[in-house]
Design a protein that fits this description.
Elements lengths: L14 H15 L6 E2 L11 H14 L15 H12 L11 E4 L2 H7 L9 E6 L3 H9 L3 E6 L17 E5 L11 H13 L3 E5 L25 E6 L1 H4 L7 E4 L9 H11 L5 H9 L3 H27 L4 E3 L5 E5 L6 H12 L1 E2 L1 E2 L10 E5 L4 H14 L1
Parallel strand pairs: 1-11, 3-4, 3-5, 5-6, 6-7
Antiparallel strand pairs: 2-8, 7-8, 9-10, 10-13, 12-13
Helix pairs in contact: 2-9, 3-9, 4-5, 10-12
Bound molecules: pyridoxal-5'-phosphate.
The site of pyridoxal-5'-phosphate (PLP) has 14 residues, from helix 4.
C-alpha cells in the first residue's frame, strides 16, 4: 500500500488547530483569564425565526409517512433551486437556469471538490493571502500553484498572472482581507479568462455583507462570465447556517468547457444530496420575513465591523476591509510578525485574532479580525486592546 505523497506536501498543522493549541496553553497558564475570540469565522447569532419555523415544519413532515422525505435529488430540490434562481439571480437582473444550480452542504466541500474536474497538470492561481481550502485541495491532487500577492501596495487587487494559468480562484468580498473588487476590476479577470481559455472559480460566500451598491454580488453581473466562471455560495455566514449546512454552486451550461454535465456526474456519484431540512431552512430565507430577519442579523455584524474599523483606526492601526465584509485585515504595529502580534493580543488583552501568515506569505505582518462576535464582547475586546497599547 502506498499513500498519496501529495498529502506530505501539505503544511503539517491546520491554522486554527495551531491557534487553538496556543489558546489552550495560555488558558492552562492563566485559568481566570476571560479570553474573547475575534479569530475564528463562526457566527454567534442564532438562526432567524423564519428559518426555525421552516425547520420545525420540515421535522414534522419527516415524522409522518405521507410527507416523509428520504433520499432527495443529488442536485437539490426544485423548490430551493427555483428560489435561488428567482431571489439571488433574477432579482439582480441575472439569468441563471435552475439546472445550473447544484445545492450543496456548504461551500467548503464544493470549493474543495470542484478541482477534481481539472486535469492534474492544470496550473492553478490563487490570491495570496487566501482561504486555505483552495490551495490544500489542489496540493492534495498534486497540482502546482501560482500565488498572486494582494498587499496594501496593490490595494489588495491581484495583478493578472504573467504566466499562463488554467484556473484562478477569486473570493470577493475576500476572506481574509475583507476587501472587494469593483465591477471594472472583476471585468479584467473575466476578460483575461475568456481570452486565455482559463476558468474562474468565484467564491461569493460573503456577498450578503456587501453594503455598497456598486460592488458586484455575483461574477455573473459581468458580461461573458457565464462562459468562464463557476460560482460558489454559502448560507453559513449569510444566515447562520454553519451548523445547519447548506450552500450552492452555479455551473453554467454556457461554459467554454462543458463542466455542467461533469459536475452532475461527479455529484451523483459521490454526493447523496443536502438534507431536506437544511434545504427547507434555506428556502425560508427568501420569504419576505426571512429576508428581513437575515438582513437584520447581517446588519448586527456589520455594526461590529464599523465600530471595529473606527476604534482600531483611532488607536492608530492601519485597517483594511470591514466595509462590505465581516473581516478586518489589520497591519501589525511596530513591524511585529503576525504570530508575535497574535501572542501579544492573547497575553496582554486576552483577545484571539488570526495571524495573517496562516493565510499565505503575503499575510505576514497582518492579522484578521472578525465581526461575528456579540456587540458586548466586541466592545470589550476593543476596550482591552486600547488599554494595553
Ligand atoms: N469560502 C470561504 C471564503 C469561507 O471563508 C468559508 C467559510 O469560512 C467557506 C467558503 C465555507 O463555508 P461553508 O462550508 O460553511 O459553506
Amino acid at each position: 500500500m502506498k499513500i498519496n505523497d501529495n498529502y506530505l506536501n501539505l503544511s503539517s498543522n491546520y491554522l486554527f488547530a495551531d491557534i487553538a493549541k496556543r489558546v489552550r496553553a495560555f488558558k492552562a497558564q492563566s485559568p481566570k483569564a476571560d479570553v474573547i475570540s475575534l479569530g475564528i469565522g463562526d457566527v454567534t447569532q442564532p438562526l432567524c425565526p423564519a428559518v426555525v419555523e421552516a425547520l420545525h415544519k420540515a421535522a414534522d413532515e419527516m415524522g409522518t409517512a405521507a410527507t416523509f422525505h428520504g433520499y432527495g435529488p443529488e442536485q437539490g430540490y426544485d423548490f430551493l433551486r427555483n428560489a435561488i434562481v428567482e431571489h439571488v439571480f433574477r432579482a439582480r437582473g441575472m439569468s441563471i437556469d435552475a439546472d445550473e444550480i447544484f445545492v450543496s452542504d456548504g461551500a467548503k466541500s464544493d470549493t474543495g471538490n470542484f478541482q477534481e474536474l481539472l486535469s492534474t497538470d492544470s496550473v492553478v492561481a490563487v490570491t495570496d493571502p487566501v482561504y486555505p481550502v483552495y490551495v490544500d485541495s489542489n496540493l492534495m491532487a498534486g497540482r502546482s500553484i501560482v500565488k498572486l500577492p494582494c498587499t496594501a501596495e496593490n490595494g489588495f487587487v491581484p495583478e493578472l498572472p504573467r504566466q499562463h494559468v488554467d484556473v484562478i480562484y477569486l473570493c470577493y468580498p475576500n476572506n481574509p482581507t475583507g476587501t472587494t473588487l469593483t465591477k471594472e476590476q472583476l471585468k479584467k479577470w473575466v476578460d483575461y479568462a475568456l481570452s486565455n481559455d482559463a476558468l474562474i472559480f468565484y467564491d461569493a460566500a460573503y456577498e450578503a455583507f456587501i453594503q455598497n451598491d456598486d460592488i458586484p454580488h455575483s461574477i455573473y453581473e459581468i458580461p461573458g462570465a457565464k462562459r468562464c466562471a463557476v460560482e460558489f455560495h454559502s448560507y453559513s455566514k449569510t444566515a447562520g447556517f454553519t451548523g445547519v449546512r447548506c450552500g450552492f454552486t452555479v455551473v453554467p451550461k454556457d461554459l467554454q468547457i462543458s463542466l455542467n454535465p461533469l459536475w452532475n456526474r461527479r455529484q451523483t456519484t459521490k454526493f447523496n444530496g443536502t438534507s431536506y431540512l437544511s434545504q427547507r431552512a434555506a428556502e425560508a430565507i427568501y420569504s419576505p420575513e426571512g429576508k428581513k430577519q437575515v438582513r437584520a442579523t447581517i446588519q448586527y455584524y456589520m455594526k461590529n465591523a464599523c465600530v471595529m474599523r473606527e476604534e482600531l483606526t483611532d488607536m492608530n492601526f492601519k485597517v483594511y476591509g470591514g466595509a462590505d465584509s465581516p473581516y478586518l485585515w489589520v497591519r501589525t504595529p511596530n513591524s511585529m510578525t503576525s504570530w508575535e502580534f497574535f501572542d501579544w493580543m492573547l497575553h496582554s488583552a486576552h483577545v484571539v485574532c488570526t495571524p495573517g501568515a496562516g493565510f499565505g506569505p503575503s499575510g505576514e505582518g497582518y492579522v484578521r479580525l472578525t465581526a461575528f462576535g456579540t456587540h458586548e464582547k466586541t466592545e470589550e475586546a476593543l476596550h482591552r486592546i486600547d488599554k494595553k497599547l
